[in-house]
Write a structure and sequence with these properties.
Layout lengths: L14 H24 L6 H14 L3 E2 L11 E5 L2 E3 L14 E10 L2 E10 L5 H19 L7 H19 L4 E2 L5 E3 L6 E5 L16 E4 L2 E3 L5 E3 L6 E3 L5 E3 L2 E4 L6 E2 L5
Antiparallel strand pairs: 1-4, 2-4, 3-12, 4-5, 6-10, 7-8, 7-9, 9-14, 10-13, 11-12, 14-15
Helix pairs in contact: 1-2, 3-4
Length: about 260
């Protein structure tokens, strides 16, 4: 009797479990909207953090970032040249023209939601607005590839292709941040597999109905190289160029991709 190798799949959840993840994701979405509404010139990123934590706890959920490997915030607040993992601080005060990326996670009834978006404080220059738009479009291209039968790197390739399509439309180049990407998610925030934001298609585990991934492209106006600041968390562009970050938690369903971190 011949036994074939068991095919590797991206971990999957039942329909009921996806609904539970969507409930956690809705809390994250509400927190992000509240943060954006609270953001403005003169507001500190620590104040934004407190807004997010209040929304999460009022919903009966717990901030998944707080205490994660010692992280001190309920959000990551990454302003301008900070790519990801910025620590909220009373000393970091927003100003008009800032480009702000907020990443937020919540756990509700044991299930995680993880989402990020980038927005402007007041009026920003066109290049910054286009950078955020390009990052959002790259994420949406990745989401569209969350289909049964696709492989993990089909999603990576779709994200990269979305970036190149935005470059063509915008008439400029973007840096695809090296070494960072999306991930599996479920009863833990960060699970295998790692999802790169670029690469050749057709490789890695297979997507099946119920597979869940956090899809999160990060683009810059310049380099793809980054450094980590002395705080051990904050990732910055090495050339000081501005960066944007968009993320949704997404499930594969028979009816197409399902975003589990919808915003109100």
């Amino acid at each position: 009797m011949a036994f074939g190798r068991k095919r590797k799949v991206v971990p999957f959840r039942s329909a009921g479990e996806l609904d539970a993840m969507a409930a956690a994701g809705a809390v994250v979405g509400a927190a992000l909207v509240a943060v954006r509404n609270a953001a403005g010139p003169g507001v500190s990123t620590l104040e934004l953090d407190r807004v997010a934590e209040a929304v999460i706890r009022d919903a009966g959920a717990v901030p998944s970032f707080l205490g994660y490997h010692g992280f001190t915030g309920s959000i990551c607040s990454s302003v301008n040249d900070r790519v990801v993992h910025g620590i909220p601080s009373a000393d970091e005060v927003l100003a008009a023209g800032d480009l702000v990326s907020i990443d937020c996670g919540a756990v509700l009834d044991g299930w995680h939601g993880d989402s990020a978006w980038t927005f402007a404080v007041g009026d920003i220059i066109e290049a910054d607005a286009m950078l955020s738009e390009a990052t959002r479009l790259s994420m949406e291209a990745g989401i569209a590839a969350m289909l049964p039968g696709n492989r993990l790197t089909d999603v990576s390739h779709a994200i990269e292709s979305g970036t190149h399509a935005a470059e063509k439309a915008h008439g400029r180049k973007y840096g695809i941040v090296d070494g960072y990407g999306g991930h599996g998610i479920g009863r833990e925030m960060h699970m295998d597999p790692f999802l790169a934001n670029e690469g050749a298609p057709g490789k890695g585990p297979e997507l099946v109905v119920g597979s869940t991934l956090a899809i999160e492209p990060m683009l810059t106006l310049g380099t793809y190289d980054t450094d980590i600041l002395e705080d051990g968390w904050t990732v910055v562009t090495t050339d000081g160029s501005r960066s944007a970050h968009w993320e949704h938690t997404v499930a594969v369903t028979e009816d197409g991709p399902r975003i589990l971190t919808l915003r109100p």
